[in-house]
């Protein structure tokens, strides 16, 4: 999407743009065939997250996995429509349902991320208060020097929290990037294909990074 957006306005690149769009369509159909497995994976993940001890992550992650499974169901129906097996399917309606399910799933992931950030912020503030009149070791010196009075102090502390917890930062970035598509499709915040394509590339890079380095993936 990003590449075709960058060159679509060039007159001498019309054939290349058409080929890129056809390739994108073919790849999209191929991905949808494999998403049935993703639906099963989402259901298994939802069952696993119901066992989490903390109520907020348990609710957010279970709701996210269940709505993601519903998204894959809607996506499968759209695929059946695209290959002609179910020609009577109302494509706009199912696409809207799929987008809403995906959107809600991302919101639940972001709610979980914010819960993790809030918990770590509170923990950092408590540590700062406890060590305020004691000897600060070198490891915590940078964090403890941050004061939480006002927006500036809050942002500095937030930066330190995300810096010290890369999996949380990467998960937050990926969810925010993934959110650009549903926001545009649902008309909540309209943007252009270039922005959506760039966010998609960044999200994919984060996904590849967490696959290559599992310790950078936020634990459920």
Which secondary structure elements does this structure contain, and how are they paired or packed?
Elements: H1 2-7, H2 14-49, H3 55-82, H4 91-130, H5 141-144, H6 150-164, H7 166-185, H8 193-212
Features:
220 residues; mainly alpha; 8 helices; 77% helix; 0% strand
Concise synopsis of the structure shown:
It contains 8 helices and no strands. The protein is mainly α and 220 residues long. The longest helix is centred in the middle third of the chain and has 40 residues, at 91-130.
In N-to-C order, the SSE pattern is HHHHHHHH
**Low-pLDDT windows of residues:** none
Q: Count of helices?
A: 8
Calculate Rg over CA atoms: 21 Å
Q: Approximately how much helix is present in the residues?
A: over 70%
* C-alpha termini separation: 31 Å
What shape does the CA trace take?
Answer: elongated
Structural class: mainly alpha
Percent of residues in β-strands: under 5%
Number of E strands: 0
Mean pLDDT: 81
The profile of the biggest β sheet is: none
């Amino acid at each position: 999407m990003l590449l075709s957006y960058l060159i679509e306005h060039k007159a001498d690149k019309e054939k290349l743009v058409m080929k890129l769009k056809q390739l994108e369509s073919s790849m999209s159909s191929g991905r949808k065939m494999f998403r049935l497995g993703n639906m099963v994976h989402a259901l298994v993940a939802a069952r696993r997250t119901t066992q989490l001890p903390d109520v907020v992550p348990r609710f957010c992650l279970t709701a996210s996995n269940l709505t993601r499974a519903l998204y894959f169901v809607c996506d499968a129906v759209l695929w059946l429509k695209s290959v002609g097996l179910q020609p009577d399917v109302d494509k706009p309606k199912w696409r809207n349902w799929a987008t809403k399910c995906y959107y809600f799933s991302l919101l639940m992931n972001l709610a979980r991320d914010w819960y993790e950030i809030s918990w770590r912020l509170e923990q950092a503030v408590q540590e700062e208060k406890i060590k305020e009149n004691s000897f600060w070791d070198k490891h915590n010196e940078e964090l403890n020097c941050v004061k939480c009075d006002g927006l500036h102090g809050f942002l500095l502390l937030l930066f330190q929290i995300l810096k010290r917890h890369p999996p949380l930062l990467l998960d937050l970035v990926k969810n925010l990037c993934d959110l650009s598509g549903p926001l545009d499709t649902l008309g909540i915040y309209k943007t252009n294909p270039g922005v959506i394509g760039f966010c998609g590339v960044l999200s994919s890079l984060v996904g590849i990074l967490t696959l290559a380095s599992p310790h950078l993936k936020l634990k459920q």
